[in-house]
Amino acid sequence: MTPLIRAENLAVEYGETRVLAGVDLALEPGEIVTIVGPNGSGKSTLVRALIGLETPAEGRVIRAPGLRIGYVPQKLHIDASLPITVRRFLSLPRRVSDAEAAEALAHTGVPGLETRQLARLSGGQFQRVLLARALLMRPQILILDEATQGLDQPGTAAFYRLIEDLRTETGCAVLMVSHDLHVVMSASDRVICLNGHVCCEGTPKVVSEAPEYRALFGLGTGGAFALYRHEHDHEHEGGAACTHDPAHEHHHHDHA
Ligand SMILES: Nc1ncnc2c1ncn2[C@@H]1O[C@H](COP(=O)(O)OP(=O)(O)OP(=O)(O)O)[C@@H](O)[C@H]1O
């Protein structure tokens, strides 16, 4: 199968700082892939580079011709002093019909919100409206950058069920960045563990049994917390996917 998006030996820099190096990645139609990794490990940067919002310092990103991407960014600040209804927001940047807007809102579990002010939605409603807008792109790939932040546990679980249903219904691929490890592990076909480079990757089963993953996330309920304590002192097997770039600092990830 031809990948929808492929990154080859991708490096991204902000000024003098290299935040991603040697990243190889390919997304096949219909698969759900999750990127995990500590804060500042380059997850959003990778997503932005895949979409074309960051220019590679090295390597390249290849997108299938005419690829339709639905993107839910990590942060979208809505200025409460600039009123905009849900309906108008759904027509940005592409104008959509009332019927399309209504269908997308129903699809994401928030029917009838059209006349509401965007700035006054609850966190969960807002995320679902963002998802509805992404769906209006009729995406072949849906890219979600920590789309469940601000949602409670049931809201998060429901959101991921919705993503899985959408994949089943539309056949779109899904690439998401997430810190919700338990849900990630159950909902993903493939997990990519990032820390400036790809630490380890594979099916949730393979990754969760990998020493790299265990070193990163620990076991049991402490796992999610351990995510933020990643000091990159674990050993890698094979090593091919893990060329440590000496220019890339790891110690600053110890945010615990
Ligand atoms: N526009 C920018 N200019 C300069 N540095 C940036 C920029 N965006 C991100 N960075 C830096 O690049 C590094 C990677 O950031 P990125 O947002 O990709 O990490 P992340 O893995 O998504 O983090 P988090 O889990 O906290 O969202 C960080 O050190 C960050 O400070």
Automatic annotation (TrEMBL):
Keyword Translocase included in the entry's annotation: yes
GO molecular function: ATP binding; ATP hydrolysis activity
Domain ABC transporter: 5-220
CDD domains found in the cross-reference section: ABC_Metallic_Cations (cd03235)
InterPro entries: AAA+_ATPase (IPR003593), ABC_transporter-like_ATP-bd (IPR003439), ABC_transporter-like_CS (IPR017871), Metal_Ion_Import_ABC (IPR050153), P-loop_NTPase (IPR027417)
Annotated region described as Disordered, given as residue ranges: 236-256
GO biological process terms, semicolon-separated: response to zinc ion; zinc ion transport
Key words of the record: ATP-binding, Cell membrane, Ion transport, Membrane, Nucleotide-binding, Translocase, Transport, Zinc, Zinc transport
A Pfam family hit: ABC_tran
Domain of life: Bacteria
PROSITE patterns on file: ABC_TRANSPORTER_1, ABC_TRANSPORTER_2
Protein name, UniProt field: Zinc ABC transporter ATP-binding protein ZnuC
Organism this protein belongs to: Pseudothioclava arenosa
